[in-house]
Each structure stands twice: as C-alpha cells, then as structure tokens.
Specification:
The protein is mainly alpha-helical and about 1000 residues long. The protein contains 45 helices and ten strands.
C-alpha cells in the first residue's frame, strides 16, 4: 500500500467515513472518469465532510448523481456553498437523495442560501403555482415534487443549524405549514375532479381541521396528518341575493364535501409516479372509523354536546383550521373550544386520562418497549399526556394555558405556577431532544418510525446528524438518561392527587332530551343518546340506503328492544350497515324478508360473541334469508374437502394457508352459533358439529405442520375429553394426545420430527380473535410427561405405569386426525386399558377419592358449588364421573358401553339395568342443562366462564338464549338449581353409595 493511500485512508477516517476501502475506491473511480470535469472535493472541503452525518452515504449519492445527472450537478459543484449544502443533505437523508436522483432538476434548490421555513401562505402559493390548474396524475406529480423540494429546504435549515434542538420549533412548524399547504392544494385539485356541477362544488365549503401534531404546528418529517373535515349548507338567507345563487342543502353539502375530502386525500396518498406524501388520518372525527367522514359544523357541535367521550375533547385541544374554507374552519374551532375546556368537569375525567396513557404503554410489543421514542416509558407521550392533562384541568378557568404547542404550553403552565420552573426547565429541553431524535430518524429514510435504531452504524449516523453525542454509545447513554428523567417528571406531575380534586365539580353535565330519546328509554335502551347517534348515522342523507333504513328502523328498533341488549344490537347493526348498506342484497333482505331482519336483531341483541364474528364475516347475514339450508351444520366431508383444498392451493405459503384455515373455523363457528341462537340447532347437534369444525381445522393444520416431516413417519391426533366425546361447546378447549410411529426412520429422528409437528400445530392454529387451545394435560404423566410419544411408548406406559385416572381419561379417547391405521391401532391399545376385565375395589375407591378431591380443590376460590356449571354439585362433572365409573366397571363385558359419548354411555347403562330410568333421566337433564348454559354464557358475553352469574342482566340474557320468555332470570336460576339438585341426589346415592 502506498503512502498516499495510507494518508487518504487516515484522512477519511478522521472525517468520519466508516467504509474506508469502499469510499477510497469510489473516489478513485470518480477521479478516473474519462472526459469528466466533475470532481468531488474532499481534501479542500474537509470541514464539510466532517460535519456530514453519513459521509459514506453522501459520497455514494454524489457518485450516482454524477452518473445520472452531470449537467444538473455541474453548477452545484462549481459553487462551494451549494456543494456543502448538497453533501450535508445527502449525508442526512437517503430518502431525499433518492428524490434528487429521481428529480435531478430539483438540485437547483441547493444553489439558494438556506433560509428559515416559510409561512403556510407562501408554501400554498408555491404549490398552487406548481400544480398550475392541472388534475389527475399530472397534478399529483407536480404537487408532490414541489412539496419535496420544500421539504428538502426545511431539512437543510435543520441539518445546517448549529443546534438542532433550538431549530426544532421552527422545523416542526414549517413541516406543519407545508402539510397545510399541501392539503389546501389537494382540496383545490379535488374541486376540479369531483363529478358534480362546477357551481355546486364552488358553493360547497370544505374546511380541513388539523389535529394532533399538525394542529399544534409541531409535525414530524413523516407522520400521519390527523384531520377532521367540516362542511355546511349554503342556502341564501336573503331573497334579494338572486336566483342564480347556488342553494346547497345540508344533505347535498355533506355529499359533495365527502367526495371532495376523499378526492383530496387521494391527491396526497394515491399511487403515482412520484410517491405518496403521507397518510391523511380522519379517525379522530366523531365516532371514529364508524362515523361519517364529513359532517356539518352544526352536526359536529351536536355530537360534542351530547355523545363525545373524554378522550375526544383531549384530541380537540390541538384543533386548528389548516386548509380549505378557513372561515368555516375558524368557526369550527371557536365552536368546539368551549367543550375542550369544560371536559375536565366530567366525573372521573382525570382517572380516565391516566388509564388511557397506561393502556398505550401496555399495548407496546415487548420487543419495542426499550426502543420506543414515542409511546414507551420516558418517551414523547409521557410529556404530551402530562402537559395536556394539566392544560385541560387548569385551562378551564385560566385562559393563559390554552395554547396548542407542547413547548409553549409547558412555558405557560410554568408561568402560571402550575408547574415548577425547575421541572419545566428540564421537561421542555428533554421533549425537544426526543423530538430531534425522532425527526432525524425519520429524515434518514423518509419513513414513519418512532424506534431508536439498534444497529451500531445507524446510531453513529444519528449521533452525528443530531450532534447530541460524539458516538453511538454516548448517544444511547444520553437518551437513557433523558428517558429516566422524563419518566420521573411524568409520574410526579401526571399522577398528582390534586389534579382529580381540581377537576371534580359539583353537579352533573345536563344533556338536553328529545322525544326520540325519551321513547328509546321507555322501550328499554340504556343509552338513548348513543342510540340517537346511531339512528341519525343510519338515516341521514338522500341515498337509497338511508331511505330504506328510515322505513325499517322503527320496526327493527322495536325488535331490538324485545331482546335483552338493545343498545348492543343497534351498535352492531350500524356497523354491519356501514359495511353492507350499499349492497343490493342486504337492502333487499332487510326490506323484503321480515324473518331475516327479525333473526338478525335477535342474534345481535343476544350474542356479543356472534356480533364480533359478524364484523369479520358480514356476508354471513345472508344465511338468515335461507336458515333451513344455510344455517345447517356442514358435514365433515365437506369441511375436510375445503380445508384440504386450501392447504393444497396455498401449501407453499404456510402462514397464508393457516390464516385461511382459521378463517374457515371462525366462519363455521359463526354459522353454528347463529343456528343455536335461532333454535335451529340443539345441544345434541351442537357438540358433534363443533367437533367436526375442530377436526377439519386440525386436519388442514396437520397437513401444513408435517410438510417437512421425513417419509415413513406416521402421526396422529387423539381427541380426548369433550372433544373425544364429540360434545364440544362454544369456548371449549380441545383436549388431545399426540402419537407417532415410524418403522423406517430412526427413533431419535422420528421423535424430533414429531415435536416439530406439535409445535407447528400449536403455532398454526393459534387465533387471537377466536382462541383455539390444544390442551394436552390428559397425556401420560400429566403436565410432567412428554408432549408427544410413539405408540410403543404409550403401550409400554399404559401396560406398566398407568393410574386409574389415566384409564378413566382414555374412556374419551378417539382417533381424530392423522394416519388412519395409526389412529385405529391407538384405539385398540386404549381399549386394553380403559375396558379392563375387572376393576378392583381399591381402584373404585381411588376414583371416588379423586372425585372428592376435585370437588374440594379444583373449584375456584369463592365459587358457589351450586352455580359452577362444570365442577359444581349435580353438574357436568358429576354426570360424567358417574358414567365413566360404570364404563370402567362394565365396559369389558358390555360392548354398548364402549363409546366416548356421555349420553350414549348413560343410555347403554340404563338399557343394561345398571341405572334406573328415572335416575338416568335426571342425570341427562342436568348434563344437557349445564352444557346449554355453558355455551349460552359464551354466546352472551363473548367470554369463556363456568359460573352461572348472579347479576340479573346477565341471567336474563342467558335465559333468552335458552328460549325462556322475557323476565325469566329468576326462573332460569331456580330451574338450574332444581335440576342439578336432583342430579346430585342420584350421584351421591349411586356413585358414593350415600
């Protein structure tokens, strides 16, 4: 290596280059370019490169620009100031480097001196000039290119500023103003694109209200821009205004403004030759995603007066007119401002804000908690929630703290004495530091992220970019220190006991009532104001959907009120209508099929579980139009054919196939649930049908799980417990054993492969929306035993070591999924254990002893034994243990007892004379009642539970699902206790001999 190379290498290292060899080669290649007079200054511009965040990246970007745009680059490299600006920009942002490579004419921006960000008005004029009356793809390209030119100018101001934390307020405000200008230009483009008469469009106002960081003028480089859209009717108030003045009614204004809002959003976000700018997020509007995209100012005010939740007023704290009709926007802000500053009077307001912050933290994925700049402990949200809560509590009476910007609010709170000056002096700079980190992380690739880099090189670049530390490790140390300080300040200020005391007031918020609200209360709605909100959303407008809904809702509301939960039914119906309302078949079914509409209100009112599944499969409402055919359980062969086709079609994409299988299970569970609620399926049919759905799901999942298993390995899933007996209910676990056999694969290989299959089965069937638990606690040795065994291992264990309870557990064993011969062989093996030639008295005593122990130890603490559906007196456990003891005693001699079904075995024992018919009737009645009630609890609440509730509303809902008439909560309770009491009498007499 020559001396010159050594010198060059050390020079680059001193300037901050990391890839010394690569950069040296790149410089040499550029200098050797034939016929090129473009040179990259290194030696004579050392200070430029030393101050650049990523010198290697900047050099690479320059090389690409020299190759692709030499003419546009020539005047830049001829100007030392422009060269510095370009190098610093390229080193800070690969995203903007790619933009300049895409649009080399925009290199001219670095020829101008760096200046502070412009005003929104100036940005708007520039963007409008760029768009120049165009529309469609041309408008999108021009708008986005000009936007990114200005974004690069803001980035230059940020990157070249001696203190990024001091520059932050101006940078964040400039980004917000530029976003406002882009939205304003997008609305202008949208007005040329929507399919309405020009005069009507021109007369229809649309105000864009910025929320969140955009509203506070503290926006990020890459962030969703939170907005609310507002319109109003424009009917002339003076007859003398002339016949030519457009008369825009409320409904038409909302219709046109909605199309304008959608079109303007598309201008910003559509796929186009120049990439989208950012997401336009309107989910902070009234009712969130379920609410109308555009409302009139009057409608907004009505919503905030009557139905808004506390967090919505917190969101409105940042509201600011940003684009479109600024006059309407300013009137909107003025109209909602009083709601913001009176919101802290609501009961429990402070506690609700505190809980909201805790929920945000709790939902951060574990892998991200330590890297989260925004949501994590000691992050931006700790500062923002603290400042906003203090503002909302104290701003009710003190106008001096009614400001939008976080830093300005902190200063105002400190000036008014609500926060100590030492705390404000730390909180404000800490917030600015966190925001600078967030800004420069996003600027790096122009990507929305709030995670600190984990890569050492990226941390080094971030340290150089922000100039907050001299190295990657030093930056991490400083960040951790700031996090600890912010968290401590947050906990002291945010959880002040005095806050709740200040916020609490005498009296209540009084909502004006109307006839419709009174009527809804009278017929059984618990939240009439919420119901009015939904009714208005369903009936507003001039669409066909709204007209049909206006005609149908009086009847539907009456049917909902006949159910146990009309409020829940109306909310679920509205969600379905929002999804399906424009579908011709749905409107036709609602209008023409009274049976289907009535059935729908019954399902929505009686079952939270099914309402949730219907949100995932709204098309299933169509089944209600033909319940006799479409609500019938699908036979197992049809289910197996569907899951088999799914795995065959998507076998290479395992996770995709598994997702589809989970969808099949949810859909078919929904079908069975609707059939059960509407009386098309009883408990005797439900168990086998749910078991078939489970079997088909496992069959498809096993096909996927064993795709890489060695040839010659047999594998099987043995159904146990209620699954083995084909007696599953809603919310039941699937008790299973796993077995394998291989005559050609080495035993160790076969064992490892089988363990992989089991792990994959669990992973592929895991479902957060509709849990699917494969329970293997009934395996040999219980929780201490291996999760999967060879059939020979099972045979050896059962021959030598099995306990009485394990033989009892095998009474439900049934080969369910896998290789048919292996399943049959396992059943034959199980027969030798579960149907012994004789059972000794000590074994009978052991069964009775274990049952008594289960009753005393497994019943949850505090649970009433008379109300526990599974382990309680006279319930499922009593009946099943009674029958299983008979099977152990007589199964060898009586083949009819050799069944996994509880009721079939009970009937066989009765036919053989071991159980009196009247005793069998009592036991069967209790088993069916408890099984039906257990499933009804899941359908009603959407949660799995085994205790008959005490609360009257829940009992009433369960009673309705069990086909009791209205007002039968007490009757259900009395019936259940009576049935199980009679069952317990039989059990104690015949099982214990009492």
């Amino acid at each position: 290596m020559t001396s010159r190379t050594e010198t060059s290498r050390s020079q680059l290292a001193r300037l901050g280059f990391a890839d010394l060899s690569g950069s040296l080669e790149r410089i040499a290649a550029l200098e050797a370019r034939p016929g090129s007079d473009l040179r990259v200054p290194i030696a004579d511009a050392e200070s430029v490169w030393a101050a650049t965040a990523d010198p290697d990246g900047a050099l690479l970007a320059l090389e690409r620009l020299i190759e692709s745009a030499p003419e546009q680059l020539r005047p830049v490299l001829a100007d030392p100031g422009a060269t510095e600006r370009l190098v610093r920009l390229l080193g800070a942002s690969t995203g903007l480097a790619e933009f300049l490579q895409r649009r080399p004419d925009e290199l001219a921006l670095v020829l101008d001196p760096v200046a502070p960000p412009w005003s929104q008005e100036r940005y708007t004029a520039s963007l409008d000039q760029a768009v120049d009356g165009s529309s469609g793809e041309t408008a999108r390209r021009r708008l986005r290119v000009r936007y990114r030119r200005h974004l690069a100018q803001i980035a230059l101001f940020d990157v070249l500023h001696p203190s990024p934390t001091e520059a932050f307020p101006d940078v964040a405000a400039g980004l917000a103003d530029l976003a406002g200008a882009a939205l304003d230009a997008a609305v202008t483009v949208a007005r040329r694109e929507v399919p309405f008469p020009v005069a009507d469009v021109a007369a229809t106002p649309l105000a864009v209200i910025a929320m969140g960081k955009a509203g506070a003028r503290e926006l990020n480089y890459v962030s969703d821009v939170d907005v609310i859209f507002v319109t109003e009717p424009t009917e002339p108030t003076e007859p003398s205004e002339g016949d030519d003045a457009p008369r825009i009614s409320t409904d038409r204004a909302v219709l046109i403004a909605t199309r304008l809002a959608i079109a303007a959003t598309h201008v910003i976000t559509d796929l186009a030759a120049e990439p989208a700018l950012w997401e336009v997020d309107a989910n902070l509007r009234p009712e969130g995603k379920d609410g109308a995209l555009v409302r009139t100012l009057e409608s907004h005010v009505a919503y905030y007066e009557r139905w808004a939740k506390g967090w919505e007023f917190q969101a409105l704290l940042k509201a600011r007119a940003i684009a479109g009709s600024m006059d309407l926007g300013e009137r909107y802000v003025a109209a909602v401002e009083p709601f913001v500053w009176q919101s802290s009077k609501r009961p429990g307001f402070v506690e609700s804000v505190q809980r909201m912050r805790e929920r945000v933290t709790a939902h951060i994925p574990d892998a991200q908690v330590d890297r989260q700049l925004k949501l994590g402990p000691g992050g931006l949200r700790d500062v923002e929630f603290t400042v906003q809560l203090l503002q909302l509590v104290h701003g009710r009476d003190d106008e001096s703290v009614r400001v939008r910007s976080t830093l300005e609010a902190m200063d105002a709170l400190a000036a008014a004495g609500y926060v100590g000056r030492p705390e404000a002096a730390r909180f404000g700079p800490d917030y600015a530091l966190l925001r600078v980190l967030e800004h420069h992380i996003q600027l790096r690739r122009l990507q929305r992220t709030h995670l600190m880099p984990s890569d050492e090189d990226e941390l080094r670049v971030l340290a150089r970019s922000t100039r907050l530390a001299s190295s990657a490790s030093a930056l991490q140390d400083r960040w951790r220190s700031v996090k600890l300080e912010v968290r401590g300040l947050h906990e002291r200020l945010f959880y002040r006991p005095m806050l709740a005391a200040v916020a609490s007031t005498d009296g209540e918020i009084v909502l004006t009532s109307s006839q419709v609200s009174d009527r809804l209360t009278a017929i059984g709605f618990l939240d009439p104001d919420g119901a009015v909100t939904h009714i208005r959303a369903l009936t507003q407008g001039t669409t066909r959907r709204a007209a049909i809904q206006r005609n149908l809702l009086p009847v539907l509301l009456r049917w909902m009120a006949e159910g146990p939960a009309p409020d829940r039914a109306l909310l679920a119906f509205r969600r379905l209508s929002d999804t399906l309302g424009e579908s011709s078949w749905f409107l036709r079914m609602l209008r023409d099929s009274s049976g289907a509409a009535h059935s729908l209100t019954t399902v929505l009112s009686e079952s939270a579980f099914l309402s949730g599944l219907l949100e995932r499969f709204p098309e299933a409402v169509a089944w209600l139009d033909e319940p006799d055919t479409l609500l019938k359980p699908r036979p197992l062969p049809a289910l197996l054919a569907e899951t088999g086709a799914t795995t065959a079609r998507h076998g290479d994409a395992v996770d995709t196939a598994a997702s589809l299988l989970r969808g099949v299970r949810r859909r078919e569970t929904l079908r069975l649930g609707m059939a059960a609620v509407l009386g098309h399926l009883d408990v005797d049919g439900l168990g086998p049908a749910l078991s078939d759905v489970t079997e088909a799901t496992l069959s498809g999942a096993l096909d996927l799980a064993r795709r890489d298993a060695p040839q010659g390995l047999e594998f099987g899933v043995i159904a146990m417990g209620r699954y083995g007996g084909r007696e599953l209910g809603f919310g039941s676990d699937a008790d299973v054993l796993f077995v394998y056999r291989s005559s050609t694969v080495p035993s160790e290989v076969a064992a490892r492969a089988s363990q992989v299959i089991v792990r994959e089965l669990n992973r592929l069937t895991e479902d957060a929306l509709h849990p699917f638990d494969l329970d293997i606690d009934l395996r040999p040795e219980g929780k201490n035993g291996p999760v999967v065994r060879s059939i020979d291992s099972y045979a050896a264990y059962y021959a030598r070591w099995s306990l009485t309870w394990e033989a009892q557990a095998l009474l439900r064993a049934r080969g369910a999924v896998g290789d048919a011969q292996l399943l049959r062989d396992f059943e034959h093996l199980a027969d030798r254990t579960r149907y012994p030639a004789a059972i000794e008295d000590r074994e009978v005593r052991e069964v009775r002893r274990i049952k008594a122990r289960v009753e005393s130890e497994r019943l949850p603490r505090g649970a009433d034994p008379a109300r526990h559906l599974k382990l309680g007196r006279g319930s499922l456990s009593d009946v099943e243990w009674f029958v299983q003891l008979l099977q152990l005693q007589h199964g060898h001699e009586q083949p009819s007892l050799r069944t996994t079904s509880t009721l079939e075995a009970l009937q066989a024992a009765t036919d053989a004379g071991w159980v009196a018919p009247e005793d069998a009737e009592r036991l069967a009645a209790a088993w069916r009642f408890a099984s039906r009630t257990r499933s009804a609890l899941v359908l009603w609440s959407g949660r799995t539970t085994d205790v008959l509730p005490v609360e009257r509303t829940q009992l009433e809902g369960i009673a309705r699902l069990l086909e009791y008439p209205p007002g039968s909560a007490s009757q259900l309770e009395e019936d259940y206790l009576a049935v199980t009491r009679r069952s317990r009498q039989v059990f104690e007499r015949e099982f214990y001999g009492a």
